[in-house]
Design brief:
Structural class: mainly beta
Largest sheet: 5 strands, antiparallel
Number of strands: 12
Helix content: under 10%
Bound molecules: thymidine-5'-diphosphate
Strand order of the largest sheet: 1-9-6-11-4
Strand content: over 45%
Number of helices: 1
Distance between the termini: 15 Å
Shape: globular
Length: 135
């Protein structure tokens, strides 16, 4: 199930360092990293799930909200997560519908992904996503 991961900060007089390592504090091999920023006020993103892709999303600056929908033990579970810290990652499992909203103007998201980009991996129809979940 999707969940939040807490990262350690290494702090000293020179500043703060946070490390992300595949198969250590990130629960998969990291094949791709991308950044989302400059999202205009009021704009939503997402609106899809993935067949195989797992992601950990880290908010490096500002804030935004993620609405997730996933099947757990045959039941559809909906959760909302506010991301506003570089010390928290949101693990989004495969077969999880996500909507991203309420972006602050300065929001910068870093997304760590388990797979290379593939349009074939996207599930873009919510009704068919729900129909194929929970069984
Ligand atoms: P999309 O996954 O729809 O973004 P979001 O989930 O944030 O709404 O991707 C937006 C566009 O960027 C789409 O045309 C696909 C392209 N894209 C890539 O080329 N490479 C990538 O790694 C990602 C994530 C998207």
């Amino acid at each position: 199930m999707s969940s939040e991961i807490i990262f350690n900060e290494i702090k000293d007089s020179r500043g703060v360092l946070v490390s992300f390592e595949g198969n250590k504090n990130i629960p998969f091999d990291i094949k791709r990293v991308y950044v989302i920023k400059n999202v205009p006020g009021g704009m939503a993103r997402g609106g899809h799930a993935h067949k195989n892709l797992k992601q950990v999303i880290v908010c490096l600056k500002g804030s935004c909200d993620f609405d997730l929908v996933e099947a757990v033990g045959g039941r559809i579970i909906k959760t909302t997560h506010t991301l506003n810290s570089h010390t928290t990652g949101l693990l989004v499992e495969n077969r999880t519908w996500r909507e991203m909203k309420n972006f602050s103007e300065d929001c910068v998201l870093m997304v760590l992904a388990s797979e290379h980009y593939s349009e074939d991996d996207y599930i873009r129809n919510y009704e068919s996503f729900i129909e194929n979940s929970g069984n």
